[in-house]
Amino acid sequence: MKIRVGMGFDVHELEEGRDFWLGGIKLPATKGAVGHSDADVLIHAICDALLGAANLRDIGYHFANTDNRWKGMDSKFFLKEVTAMLHERGWRVGNVDCTVCLEKPKVNPHIDAMKKVLAPLMNITEEDVSIKATTNEKLGYVGREEGVNASAVALIMKD
Ligand SMILES: Nc1ccn([C@@H]2O[C@H](COP(=O)(O)O)[C@@H](O)[C@H]2O)c(=O)n1
Ligand SMILES: C[C@@]1(CO)OP(=O)(O)OP(=O)(O)OC[C@H]1O
């Protein structure tokens, strides 16, 4: 069996009055992430981890932020497509482990809901999706609540 790992990292700016999509769900928040798509930083980091594991470049390479087709796009679409790209090449997803770095709101109460949405998009069980959160201890752009970042690692395998 062949096993590969990949890592992904993404950052989005936060702005007052925007919807805040994170891990495929809309979080109750006063600020939301800004991007070409729905700016779901967690899904983008997972996509990059999966693409990296398969040595398939990154999310922006496949879904350019200059392409009108992806404007305002629900990022769940990207994760489903990335999983399909892997399947086409014989890969299946093993597990993903992610960290969101964000001052507020608290992510913990929403993690089970995120896992429920994300797992089927990757054709894995919720047990194989780990999501964690941390503040940036009020330091830097995350600390000033100007932005949010997420990192992810993914394991993929094929027989
Ligand atoms: N947006 C966040 C940030 C953190 N958490 C949870 O709180 C714990 C403490 O955060 P520290 O940054 O002070 O270590 C953290 O371990 C998470 O469990 C959260 O839910 N949402
Ligand atoms: C997802 C894409 C495409 O809509 O745009 P954004 O939502 O801006 O996200 P980012 O993580 O900056 O880059 C990938 C993009 O190509």
Automatic annotation (TrEMBL):
<feature type="binding site">
    <location>
        <begin position="63"/>
        <end position="67"/>
    </location>
    <ligand>
        <name>4-CDP-2-C-methyl-D-erythritol 2-phosphate</name>
    </ligand>
</feature>
<protein>
    <recommendedName>
        <fullName>2-C-methyl-D-erythritol 2,4-cyclodiphosphate synthase</fullName>
        <ecNumber>4.6.1.12</ecNumber>
    </recommendedName>
</protein>
<feature type="binding site">
    <location>
        <position position="10"/>
    </location>
    <ligand>
        <name>a divalent metal cation</name>
    </ligand>
</feature>
<dbReference type="InterPro" id="IPR020555">
    <property type="entry name" value="MECDP_synthase_CS"/>
</dbReference>
<comment type="subunit">
    <text>Homotrimer.</text>
</comment>
<dbReference type="Pfam" id="PF02542">
    <property type="entry name" value="YgbB"/>
</dbReference>
<feature type="binding site">
    <location>
        <begin position="36"/>
        <end position="37"/>
    </location>
    <ligand>
        <name>4-CDP-2-C-methyl-D-erythritol 2-phosphate</name>
    </ligand>
</feature>
<feature type="site" description="Transition state stabilizer">
    <location>
        <position position="36"/>
    </location>
</feature>
<feature type="binding site">
    <location>
        <position position="44"/>
    </location>
    <ligand>
        <name>a divalent metal cation</name>
    </ligand>
</feature>
<dbReference type="InterPro" id="IPR036571">
    <property type="entry name" value="MECDP_synthase_sf"/>
</dbReference>
<keyword id="KW-0414">Isoprene biosynthesis</keyword>
<comment type="similarity">
    <text>Belongs to the IspF family.</text>
</comment>
<feature type="binding site">
    <location>
        <begin position="10"/>
        <end position="12"/>
    </location>
    <ligand>
        <name>4-CDP-2-C-methyl-D-erythritol 2-phosphate</name>
    </ligand>
</feature>
<feature type="site" description="Transition state stabilizer">
    <location>
        <position position="135"/>
    </location>
</feature>
<feature type="binding site">
    <location>
        <begin position="134"/>
        <end position="137"/>
    </location>
    <ligand>
        <name>4-CDP-2-C-methyl-D-erythritol 2-phosphate</name>
    </ligand>
</feature>
<dbReference type="InterPro" id="IPR003526">
    <property type="entry name" value="MECDP_synthase"/>
</dbReference>
<dbReference type="GO" id="GO:0008685">
    <property type="term" value="F:2-C-methyl-D-erythritol 2,4-cyclodiphosphate synthase activity"/>
</dbReference>
<keyword id="KW-0456">Lyase</keyword>
<feature type="domain" description="2-C-methyl-D-erythritol 2,4-cyclodiphosphate synthase">
    <location>
        <begin position="3"/>
        <end position="156"/>
    </location>
</feature>
<feature type="binding site">
    <location>
        <position position="12"/>
    </location>
    <ligand>
        <name>a divalent metal cation</name>
    </ligand>
</feature>
<comment type="pathway">
    <text>Isoprenoid biosynthesis; isopentenyl diphosphate biosynthesis via DXP pathway; isopentenyl diphosphate from 1-deoxy-D-xylulose 5-phosphate: step 4/6.</text>
</comment>
<keyword id="KW-0479">Metal-binding</keyword>
<feature type="binding site">
    <location>
        <begin position="58"/>
        <end position="60"/>
    </location>
    <ligand>
        <name>4-CDP-2-C-methyl-D-erythritol 2-phosphate</name>
    </ligand>
</feature>
<feature type="binding site">
    <location>
        <position position="144"/>
    </location>
    <ligand>
        <name>4-CDP-2-C-methyl-D-erythritol 2-phosphate</name>
    </ligand>
</feature>
<comment type="function">
    <text>Involved in the biosynthesis of isopentenyl diphosphate (IPP) and dimethylallyl diphosphate (DMAPP), two major building blocks of isoprenoid compounds. Catalyzes the conversion of 4-diphosphocytidyl-2-C-methyl-D-erythritol 2-phosphate (CDP-ME2P) to 2-C-methyl-D-erythritol 2,4-cyclodiphosphate (ME-CPP) with a corresponding release of cytidine 5-monophosphate (CMP).</text>
</comment>
